[in-house]
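Why should sequence recovery work at all? Because a backbone constrains its sequence more than one might expect. Tight turns favour small or flexible residues, buried strands favour hydrophobic ones, and helices have their own preferences. The token representation captures these environments compactly. In the example below, the structure is given first.
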């Protein structure tokens, strides 16, 4: 039996069917396009057995299969159910489609008895599954069909929900929704009319799976047979279309299908072909089939892949095929203008060291002609390519020699033209260099049909040493570039390895010359390149082996190096005809001279353009071609070139221009017939236009009607209806009618629509309005669209006040109302859509009585804009100034029209606007635009896939365009800059204006205070067309020039003027500037300052006053002044250097004042003044602070007898700098406790008499006005302890120094005295407590005597008097003054001379002062962690040169401003004053011998 399963019309198990099938039933209905004439799947026939045979068979099967059989049956049952719905759905649609549109040649009124066009078919189904019996019957009058089971009629009312009887489109069906075993039987469909009765029968068998609760019948166990892939039923659904790829990219060709049965482990047998050549899977071609999809993937596209691809599926009934073309365009060239890559590279005539490589040339459209090709080779497994030819070869063949025997190679080719070298072609298949002659020398002999014996020719030849000569020497390839010699190997050849020697000679001369001296040739092929043009040559060949050489072969026929053939002649007439909306069919006559034709290249161009584009990228072999990928509505012309091994022929003549339009056909059927109103005697209908107009405008509709109870259709209108709405009258009240509509165009009347649902003719009396109709869409974009509809014909008890719009996603019954309140207009902008989602809409009309019935659902619409969609452009015509709206359509057809609307009401003949169309652009121009023209404008392009757009014209936009329109209609010369003035260097004043653009014919005039000014004395007027500048220069600008200046410009029709008012303060400013520039000019005639005085600060913080001078000479003098006092720098200024500078070292407040620089010679004098005060002074200080702050060292701790001092060294310091000391972030003010000061090299802060509360972090901040430079020191912990102990030590030492014994003054260094005189050495001493005084002579203590009297009075005055000195009293005297804190030792040299002698030169003794030794502290002080400066040389002891007392008071041993220590952490390098006692401190005890 044959099974057909349940239908797709909503049976109870439809959910299961959809779940288990690979495609939903609704998709199958929408996509299946071919009728199914036979059942898709044949179930195995049950065996007819006797009871005994059945029992044995059942036991055997049960034993072998067991429980596994149940699993297999369930899986098979599931697959059957999944495929039945698909198969039956396809069958129903296929048969319905075939039968719907069959027209008989007989008239409708010819009687005919019933006839089953499609008879019932038997079914075998499983229990609890649906089954559908259907048949198609025709006859006149229409037969009535009744259903019977056996002899009993089938009545759905007797078993509600079990049976369903349908009659649609002439197809009668009986559906049994849930079969039981009792439903098994014979079913009949009996068709009856007035002329007879016909019956169709079929058997339904319902089976129950084993183990389902009842005893199983043995016949229910099917025999499981193997199913071959070619036994499957396959229907192709979504098919791959014409595709476009680019070299280097990838592409997939996909075709979906319905497979019955769909077995996961048994996919259909699919084959792919390119240009009728079977493809095999590999690296360049990937294939897969399964899951209802056949896929071919090309992962590495090249132009070799271009061609017609065919998918061939083997099915039960033969094959199912689909073909489409794949275009592969050139990738971007390696250099601009370089040609495309060659293609189809193959190797022929393969020998042991030689192959012949051939290829196809690329198409050259706009590139320069190809001048030759380079051939590259690489060994298999390597990526290294080697160029084979040094010079480009001009033909598409090249002999490659020098290969290695047994090696495998790939080859590729590159094209060359004047612009560069192309990308390489795809590499050839692998070829191996082997000697074909070796395999030809093997013979296979069969013995008794079983055994193969291989015999070599060497065995048959016997023992041969010297080979025979080659034979048949000839030229197998003759080209302009080369000649290929070929010959047959010698026989006998011998067993030793063989090679060949070739000789050539000019034909007829006999002067033979060897040509392969450097090559040991082993193949019977050899390319010769170095032959002279126009000469004929003969060749002969020797066979050579290790034993010797053969005789020479017979010389070849004379050979001349010329091209045997050239390119083909140009193809003949090219004719282009319409094909589809994006393709054109091009055919042409073959060339008269084919010359080994490879194929053709087709080029196209848009009419009006000069640029050609390639239509194919690989030579096409036939003389007809479909050019795809064209712009709908655009016009093109085409040309063709023939291709052979020599290149491309001349172009053919161009075809006639042709617009890209579908081929002319009748329109498709209208659809969506809906009832708008009825009055009991007529019905008003509306319908939707055909989806395909057939390439011509639909200009007529014809309506047929019939009583729903009859089959005979009657024409309603003999005269064409032009609108898509019609009132059908002369109907009977209460009768149901069906209608169908046909559309017509210039090609004829198209197919009729499907019959409408039965419509009852009865008067509508409801108070609510009828349905809106003709729902359509405009401006469909990715996230929005505009829904349009027409008002209901039947309005109800009152007029329609508005509309409600509902929306749902396709396939969903959940509608969402988009309008909270009814809208009064008949359009709605819908936004917020999901891109790519499909929606349906309906509209409900509203009046005062309520909401009317909804409209028919709209067609599903996908939220996606058409490719290349443009929006409406609102602009102004640059020539006329007209305000317009325009749209350039992305798609157009020959019958397309632009329909403009305002607020979605079509604009007819309206005086306010005019519409002009040109090609794909339409323009709506406003006559006199004003506020009445505001609104939303839309345009629809008819006979396209919905090309439309809209634009809302707002008041602001209109005003802007009106201003621009006025400017265009009343043109002015646009100005970049209005009239302005400029003071030139001589005090001249230039008045100028700049226009955006000026023509050479421009005219203009200047008017000053209402009087025209022309070029004359002191005034120059000119213009420059290139820059658009018009100018007037006044050489002498005085008070008389105050007033209003105007320039008037005329340039063609455009004109403009610009004015400038120079009066009052504005004029005074200009006059002052002019006078200043005039004086400047005069000043610069002599020596002058090109740059006036300015200041800079050097790295060592020296302030430099600098200036630059110009126009100087050797005699020019330069002087510096401060406050009129001349300054004479150490280095005289050099004016000839062009720059002079005055250094101001150690800058401080004292340097404030006015500095002047005076430059003069006999030509004049110039002065520059620089006032250093106020802000200038602050700027200099800040500049110094910036340098000082950047160079500041880290804080250094220095202990003194007075306290602890923190010092910061820098390049320069002055108290005018903004310097702040902080302790724990609190600012420190200078006080007795915290003293702040500095020197030129450092800033310091001293903590007097420190205590623990002075511990903490100390910071110095130096501000330069822009940034603050900070340095810190943490005076706490061990650092503070060490510093404090050092301070105590120094304090004790200072106290000792202050109170030690010392000579305050009165003693000379040297005394010269005449004998017999009295010598008195007296001095003042001081010390606390009172010191002890001792006198010494020559280091021996002197005691008081008559001759030498020593006194010490009042603890203050010490003296030694020597009465009547003698020469013996000469010597070195000294006084030692000391107390417990120390003392001082002072020496005096005494010289005694006799009377009459010359006073001797004083002779100084030893240095009078020794280094003082302070009293050591009671406990040794710990070593200080801060470096102690070493005394400088200036601190070493010095002898007193005069008897004048020392000028340094003893009470101030430590100066207030100590010499700074160095910046580095090792300040010993500087001569800082030591905190030890001063240089004149003496040892408390004199040295003794």
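From this structural description, the recovered sequence reads:
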């Amino acid at each position: 039996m044959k099974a057909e399963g349940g239908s797709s019309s909503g049976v109870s198990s439809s959910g299961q069917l959809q779940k288990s099938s690979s495609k939903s039933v609704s998709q199958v209905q929408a996509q299946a396009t071919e009728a199914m004439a036979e059942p898709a799947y044949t179930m195995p026939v049950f065996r007819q057995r006797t009871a005994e045979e059945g029992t044995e068979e059942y036991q055997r099967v049960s034993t072998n299969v067991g429980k596994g059989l149940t699993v297999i049956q369930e899986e098979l049952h599931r697959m059957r159910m999944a495929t039945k719905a698909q198969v039956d759905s396809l069958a129903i649609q296929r048969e319905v489609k075939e039968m719907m549109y069959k027209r008989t040649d007989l008239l409708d009124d010819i009687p005919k008895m019933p006839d089953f066009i499609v008879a019932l078919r038997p079914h075998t189904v499983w229990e609890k599954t649906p089954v559908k019996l259907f048949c198609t019957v025709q006859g006149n009058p229409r037969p009535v069909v009744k259903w019977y089971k056996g002899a009993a009629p089938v009545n759905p009312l007797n078993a509600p929900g079990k049976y369903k009887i349908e009659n649609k489109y002439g197809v009668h069906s009986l559906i049994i929704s849930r079969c039981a075993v009792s439903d098994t039987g014979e079913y009949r469909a009996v068709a009856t009319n007035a002329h007879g009765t016909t019956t169709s029968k079929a058997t339904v068998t319902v089976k129950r799976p084993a183990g389902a609760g009842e005893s199983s019948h043995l016949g229910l166990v099917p025999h499981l047979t193997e199913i071959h892939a070619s036994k499957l039923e396959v229907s192709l659904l979504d098919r791959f279309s014409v595709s476009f790829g680019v070299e280097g990219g990838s592409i997939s060709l996909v075709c979906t299908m319905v497979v019955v049965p769909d077995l996961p482990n048994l996919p259909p047998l699919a084959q792919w072909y390119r240009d009728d050549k079977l493809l095999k899977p590999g690296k360049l071609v990937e294939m897969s089939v399964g899951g209802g999809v056949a896929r071919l993937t090309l992962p590495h596209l090249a132009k070799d892949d271009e061609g017609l691809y065919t998918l061939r599926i083997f099915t039960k009934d033969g094959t199912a095929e689909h073909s489409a073309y794949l275009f592969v365009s050139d990738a971007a060239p390696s250099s601009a203008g370089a040609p495309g890559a060659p293609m189809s590279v193959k190797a022929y005539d393969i020998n042991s060291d030689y192959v012949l490589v051939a290829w196809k040339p690329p198409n050259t459209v706009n590139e320069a002609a190809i001048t030759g090709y380079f051939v590259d080779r690489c060994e298999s497994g390597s990526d290294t390519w080697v160029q084979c030819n040094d010079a480009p070869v001009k033909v598409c063949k090249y002999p490659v020699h020098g290969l290695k025997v047994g090696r495998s190679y790939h080859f590729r080719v590159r094209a060359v033209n004047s612009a560069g070298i192309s990308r390489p072609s795809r590499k050839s298949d692998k070829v191996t260099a082997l000697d074909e002659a070796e395999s030809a020398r093997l013979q296979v002999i069969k013995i008794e049909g079983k055994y193969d014996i291989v015999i070599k020719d060497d065995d048959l030849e016997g023992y041969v040493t010297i080979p025979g000569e080659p034979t048949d020497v000839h030229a197998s390839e003759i080209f302009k570039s080369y000649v290929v010699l070929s010959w047959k190997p010698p026989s006998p050849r011998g067993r030793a390895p063989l090679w060949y020697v070739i000789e050539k000679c000019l034909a007829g001369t006999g002067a033979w010359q060897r040509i392969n001296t450097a090559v040991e040739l082993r193949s019977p092929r050899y390319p010769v390149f170095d032959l002279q043009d126009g000469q004929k040559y003969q060749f002969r060949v020797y066979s050579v082996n290790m034993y010797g050489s053969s005789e020479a072969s017979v010389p070849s026929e004379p050979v001349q190096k010329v091209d045997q053939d050239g390119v083909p002649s140009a193809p003949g007439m090219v004719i282009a005809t319409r094909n589809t909306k994006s393709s054109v069919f091009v055919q042409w006559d073959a060339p008269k001279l084919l010359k080994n034709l490879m194929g053709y290249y087709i080029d196209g161009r848009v009419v009006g353009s000069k640029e050609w584009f390639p239509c194919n990228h690989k030579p096409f072999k036939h003389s007809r071609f479909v050019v795809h990928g064209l712009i709908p509505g655009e016009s093109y012309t085409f040309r063709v070139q023939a291709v052979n091994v020599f290149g491309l022929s001349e172009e053919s003549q161009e075809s006639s221009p042709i617009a890209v339009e579908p081929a002319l056909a009748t329109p498709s059927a209208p659809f969506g017939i809906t009832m708008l109103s009825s009055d009991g005697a007529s019905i008003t209908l509306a319908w939707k236009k055909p989806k395909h107009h057939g390439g011509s405008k639909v200009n007529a509709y014809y309506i047929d009607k019939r009583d729903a109870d009859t089959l005979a259709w009657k024409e309603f209108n003999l005269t064409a209806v032009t609108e898509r709405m019609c009132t059908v009258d002369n109907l009977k009240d209460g009768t149901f009618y069906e209608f169908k509509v046909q559309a017509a165009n210039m090609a004829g009347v198209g197919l009729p629509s499907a019959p409408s649902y039965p419509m009852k003719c009865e008067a509508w009396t409801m108070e609510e309005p009828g349905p809106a109709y003709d729902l359509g869409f405009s401006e469909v974009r990715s996230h929005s669209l505009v829904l349009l509809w027409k008002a209901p014909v039947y309005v109800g008890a009152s007029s329609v006040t508005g509309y409600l719009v509902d929306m749902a996603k396709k396939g969903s019954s959940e509608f969402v109302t988009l309008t909270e309140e009814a809208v009064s207009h008949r359009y709605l902008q819908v936004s917020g859509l999901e891109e790519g989602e499909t929606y349906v809409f309906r509209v409900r009309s509203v009046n005062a009585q309520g909401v009317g019935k909804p409209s028919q659902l709209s067609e599903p619409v996908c939220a996606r804009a058409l490719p290349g969609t443009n929006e409406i452009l609102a602009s102004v015509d640059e020539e006329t100034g007209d305000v317009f709206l325009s749209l350039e359509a992305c798609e157009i057809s020959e019958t397309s029209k632009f329909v403009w609307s305002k607020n979605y009401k079509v604009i007819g003949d309206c005086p306010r606007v005019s519409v002009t169309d040109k090609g794909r652009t339409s323009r709506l121009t406003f006559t006199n635009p004003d506020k009445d023209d505001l609104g939303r404008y839309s345009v629809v392009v008819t006979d396209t896939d919905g090309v439309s757009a809209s634009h809302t014209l707002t008041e602001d936009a209109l005003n802007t365009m009106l201003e621009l329109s006025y400017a265009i209609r009343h043109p002015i010369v646009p100005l970049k800059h209005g009239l302005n003035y400029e003071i030139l260097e001589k005090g001249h004043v230039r008045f100028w204006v700049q226009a955006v653009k000026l023509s050479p014919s421009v005219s203009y005039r200047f008017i000053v205070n209402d009087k025209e000014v022309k070029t004359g004395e002191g005034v120059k007027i000119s213009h420059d067309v290139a820059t658009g500048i018009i100018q007037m220069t006044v050489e002498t600008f005085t008070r008389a020039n105050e007033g209003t200046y105007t320039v008037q410009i005329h340039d063609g029709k455009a004109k403009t003027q610009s004015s400038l008012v120079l009066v009052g303060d504005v004029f005074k400013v200009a006059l002052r500037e002019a006078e200043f520039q005039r004086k400047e000019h005069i000043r610069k005639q002599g020596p002058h300052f090109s740059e006036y005085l300015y200041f800079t600060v050097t790295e060592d913080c020296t302030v430099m006053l600098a200036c630059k001078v110009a126009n100087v000479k050797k005699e020019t003098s330069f002087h510096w002044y401060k406050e009129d006092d001349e300054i004479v720098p150490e280095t005289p200024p050099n004016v000839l250097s062009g720059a002079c500078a005055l250094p101001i070292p150690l800058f401080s407040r004292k340097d404030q004042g006015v500095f002047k620089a005076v430059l003069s010679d006999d030509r004049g004098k110039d002065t520059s003044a620089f006032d250093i005060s106020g802000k200038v002074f602050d700027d200099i200080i800040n500049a110094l602070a910036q340098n000082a702050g950047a160079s500041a060292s880290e804080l250094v701790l220095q202990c003194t007898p007075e306290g602890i001092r923190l010092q910061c060294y820098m390049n320069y310091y002055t108290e005018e700098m903004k310097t702040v000391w902080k302790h724990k972030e609190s600012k420190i003010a200078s006080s007795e406790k915290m003293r702040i000061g500095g020197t030129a090299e450092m800033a310091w802060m001293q903590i007097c008499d420190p205590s623990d509360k002075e511990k903490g972090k100390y910071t110095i901040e130096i501000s330069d006005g822009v940034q603050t430079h900070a340095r810190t020191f943490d005076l706490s912990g061990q650092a503070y302890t060490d510093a404090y102990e050092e301070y105590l030590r120094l304090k004790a030492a200072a106290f000792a120094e202050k109170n030690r014994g010392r000579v305050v003054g009165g003693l000379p260094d040297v005394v010269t005295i005449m004998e017999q005189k009295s010598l008195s050495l007296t001095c003042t001493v001081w010390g606390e407590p009172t010191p002890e005084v001792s006198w010494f002579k020559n280091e021996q203590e002197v005691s008081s005597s008559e001759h030498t009297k020593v006194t010490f009075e009042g603890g203050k005055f010490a003296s030694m008097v020597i009465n009547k000195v003698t020469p013996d009293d000469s010597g070195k005297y000294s006084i030692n003054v000391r107390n417990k804190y120390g003392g001082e030792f002072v020496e005096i040299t005494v010289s005694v001379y006799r009377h009459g002698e010359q006073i001797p030169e004083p002779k100084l003794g030893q240095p009078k002062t020794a280094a003082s030794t302070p009293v050591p502290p009671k406990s040794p002080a710990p070593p200080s962690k801060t470096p102690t400066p070493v005394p400088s040389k200036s601190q070493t002891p010095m002898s007193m040169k005069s008897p004048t007392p020392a000028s340094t008071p003893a009470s101030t041993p430590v100066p207030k401003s100590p010499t700074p220590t160095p910046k580095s952490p090792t300040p010993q390098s500087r001569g800082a004053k030591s905190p030890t006692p001063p240089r004149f401190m003496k040892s408390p005890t004199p040295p003794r011998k």
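A few observations help interpret the result. The CA atoms of residues 1186 and 1264 lie 5 Å apart.
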